Amino acid sequence: MASPMKIFLIFSLLPLLQLQFCSGQNAVNGVYWFRDSGFAASNIDSSLFTHIFCAFADLDPQTRQVTISAANNASFSQFTATVQLKNPSVKTLLSIGGGSSNTTVFSQMAAQSSTRKSFIDSSIRLARSYGFSGLDLDWEYPQTSSDMTNLGTLLTEWRAAVTAEAQSSGRPALLLTAAFYYAASVNGLNYPVSSINRNLDWVNAMAYDFYGPSWYRFTNSHSMLYDSTSQVSGSYGIDSWIQAGLGAKKLALGIPFYGYAWRLANANNHGLLAPSTGPVGSDGGAIGYNQIRSFISQNSGTVVVYNSTIVTNYCYSGTTWIGYDDTQSVAAKVSYAKQKGLLGYFAWHVGVDSNWALSKQGNSQILMQLLLSCVN
After folding, report:
1. How far apart are alpha carbons 14 and 7 in whole angstroms?
2. What confidence tens digit (pLDDT) does each residue in 167-193 have?
3. What are the entry keywords (predicted)?
4. pLDDT reported for residue 365
């Protein structure tokens, strides 16, 4: 048991520790910023994060070079300087691709040495010229076994180029990360774990979008941490990565700052797995946490539930049912990440938090785990 004086000293030093565990391993407390969300980079409270991912750069289908659209150029070029005003130590990464990007273009780029080189060289140039600390690959998703093999080669060549550039420039090497599927295989294809282990600083495991009202006609959590009845859960995904050989310290658990709204078939049947007739609203029922909080406050009869068995929140009012992560889920997931020895967590995306409630919960949970690690 730590003495009261030791606990006091650690609390006093927390701002100086910068989320560094006693072993010296930095924790990742990351978040994505998506310009198209309409949330200005200048509004980000970067003091709550260690890493911020700027989304998204594009992959040119002709040149295979990484580019930034004219619409994004001004905000991307100033992104690092903007977020470092509030937190000079925050690291920024340029994220390439995204869920709406063309997976075929990534496949074609990765298939040949010359096009991989175009991708790699252009990405490094952009990161340096825009002041980013690293690069993040968001290829959703490789479609063939050749894609997976080529992905492994791409990562090897990317790491070699980043190392060589750092040596020649005298600057710290760029971070290399990737946002991958929640599990170590996707569409029956195994990720090149050996190459990932050697060449990436870490993987952002996207442990969300498991279920949605556009493709399932029953309510469910789209980001449950546990599910004893299936292999669709965050914990299963993390275990599959580790069992495939990826080090736990190479993993960050994904947490969504959004949920999905279902239309109940019967307002009186409103639990998990209740029949649904489809999504509420546009965008397949996707709804930001800030909108969820507004829905709850504007509908006085809304019932809010936290299910600790699978780790999810949901609420319902009338025929509207929304599954999402609230502060209880975030706390449980960050604690899980620490207990599993993971590097940390990340969230998609910062623009839909509500008064920083989820961001602050994740940040405070990381700090508490840090404190416990240091005093025991």
Report:
1. 11
2. 999 999 999 999 999 999 999 999 999
3. Glycoprotein, Glycosidase, Hydrolase, Signal
4. 75
In a domain, 183, yes or no: yes
Domain count, the chain: 1
165 is catalytic: no
pLDDT tops 50 at residue 207:
yes
Does 194 fall in a domain? yes
- Select which of 45, 121, 140, 157 is catalytic: 140
Q: What one-character-per-residue DSSP string does 213-276 give?
A: TTT-SB---SS-S--TTSS-SHHHHHHHHHHTT--GGGEEEEEESEEEEEEES-TT--STT-BE
The pair of structure tokens assigned to 358 is 């989820």
3-state secondary structure of 103: helix
Cα-based distances in Å from 222 to 147, 227, 234, 246, 257: 27, 11, 10, 24, 12
Q: Would the pTM count as exceeding 0.90?
A: yes
User: What's the confidence (pLDDT) of residue 373?
Assistant: 52
Domain housing 57: 28-256+325-374
